[in-house]
Design a protein that fits this description.
- The structure holds two protein chains of two kinds.
- By secondary structure, chain A is an alpha/beta fold.
- Helices cover 29% and strands 26% of the residues of chain A.
- In chain A, helix 2 packs across helix 3 (97-107).
- Chain A is globular and about 50 Å long.
- By secondary structure, chain B is an all-alpha fold.
- Chain B has helices at residues 2-21, 24-42, 49-71, 73-77, 80-86, 91-120, 126-152, 156-180, 183-208.
- In chain B, helix 2 (24-42) runs antiparallel to helix 3, helix 3 (49-71) packs antiparallel against helix 8 and helix 6 packs antiparallel against helix 9.
- Helices cover 86% and strands 0% of the residues of chain B.
- Classes of the chains: A alpha/beta, B mainly alpha.
- The interface between A and B is medium-sized, with 29 and 24 residues.
Chain lengths: 191, 212
């Protein structure tokens, strides 16, 4: 499903990624690790189709079938959880939107606060909402950058449950691989 | 149909954000009234109507600039372009939704500004109102595109005025011309500006957000 050949990325004179090859099968789980500045986020943004590589070939599924969670949850702080998911649900043209949104909010423990503005949420609750947004359109490829960020023990358990249950292809970058290591089918350590 | 639905969802989102945050519109209202007040006291008695109309257009362009500077704040601060561009909606729908929201804020500011101008200087005629409406379309279409470009840059607060003001010169020329007498010709000029820059902005926006 994902095939990368000779990938390189430069920002001006700075070479972030060089000559990278990788392949992730459908339903596979690629765990990306590495120190700060090793290019994890750049690689994930390329694999989400958000950044063009400087060189090399990248084969990805169609844009609308990719779910991306960056360092931030990528939701509007002044909207409620429900308004955010409704907005993205409309843009993704999801049928039976209300049911899908209700199910996700229930699963991530946000149903009771669905009408509250995201600005009033804790960082962990915002991350849970970010995960709801990413899963909303049932993407085939999930690209998650530090998904365990700010999650408490219950949130981490939920994340592991979601990752283990899902049939999608995953690319996950993290500093805390112990939370998802057992699920990985492939590993990439960037230096 | 889905394009219209996407645009409406995105414009509604921006109006809702402003309704909650109340950051842009109050600032635009205060700015335009304060500017007209300053002009009122700064202009010597007996200044002609054309000069006053010129100042009205200056005030409107800078008020619009204030709104445009704030247009992409949520997307910039919360990295939301990433989430929006991954949706299957046409990228130009993001531009159009934002332009409609900025247009609404600008019209709201002008609902206060034009009566204030009438009180401080002289009444505004139908031609001025028509010119303002046409100018708003041009300001919002071009300004929203440039606002998105500026978001990607480092010195974004400097970049937007530098990009926008040169392109606003024809709007001021057309606006003052239409308000000051030679109406129809300048109204046509403004409509032509709207059509050309509207289509250009619509077509170019996709490339602006390609690697934001």
């Amino acid at each position: 499903m994902i095939a990368v050949r000779g990938l390189a990325k430069r920002y001006g004179d700075r070479r972030v990624l060089r000559n990278l090859d990788l392949e992730v099968e459908d339903g596979g789980f690629l765990l990306v690790t590495g120190p700060n500045g090793s290019g994890k986020t750049t690689l994930l943004r390329i694999l989400a189709g958000l950044v063009a590589p400087s060189a090399g070939e990248v084969r990805l599924p169609p844009r609308a079938t990719i779910g991306y969670l960056g360092h931030a949850p990528l939701v509007y702080r002044e909207l409620s959880a429900l308004e955010n998911l409704n907005l993205f649900g409309r843009l993704y043209r999801i049928d039976e939107r209300a049911e899908r949104i209700g199910m996700l909010l229930e699963r991530f423990g946000l149903w009771e606060v669905r009408h509250d503005r995201v600005a009033t949420f804790s960082r962990g609750m915002q991350q849970r909402l970010g995960l709801c947004r990413v899963l909303l359109h049932e993407p085939k490829l999930l690209v998650l950058d530090e998904p365990a960020n700010a999650l408490d023990a219950a949130g981490l358990e939920l994340l592991q449950e979601v990752l283990a249950d899902a049939m999608q292809t995953f690319v996950v970058a993290t500093h805390e691989p112990q939370h998802v290591e057992s699920l990985a089918t492939a590993r990439l350590a960037l230096a | 149909m889905s394009y219209a639905s996407d645009v409406s969802a995105l414009a509604r989102k921006d109006l809702l954000l402003e309704l909650r945050a109340k950051e842009t519109l109050p600032a635009m209202l205060i700015f335009v009234v304060a500017t007209l007040t300053i002009f009122h006291f700064a202009l010597p008695h007996g200044t002609g109507k054309v000069a006053a109309l010129g100042l009205l257009w200056v005030a409107l362009v800078f008020t619009a600039l204030l709104g445009l500077t704030r247009a992409f704040v949520a997307e910039r601060e919360q990295g939301l372009f990433d989430a929006l561009v991954l949706t299957p909606c046409d990228r130009s729908a993001i531009w159009l939704g934002k332009a409609i929201a900025v247009f609404a804020f600008l019209v709201a500011a002008e609902v206060v500004a034009l009566p204030a101008f009438s009180i401080f200087f002289s009444g505004v005629g139908g031609r001025t109102v028509a010119a303002v409406a046409l100018a708003d379309v041009g300001i919002c279409t071009v300004g929203t595109l440039l606002g998105a470009m500026a978001v990607a840059g480092r010195a974004r607060e400097l970049l937007l005025p530098l990009l926008f003001l040169p392109l606003a010169v024809p709007i001021v020329v057309g606006g003052v011309g239409a308000s000051a007498g030679a109406g129809a010709r300048y109204l046509l000029f403004l409509a032509l500006y709207d059509a050309i820059f509207g289509v250009l902005s619509w077509a170019v926006f996709e490339y602006v957000v390609a690697e934001v």
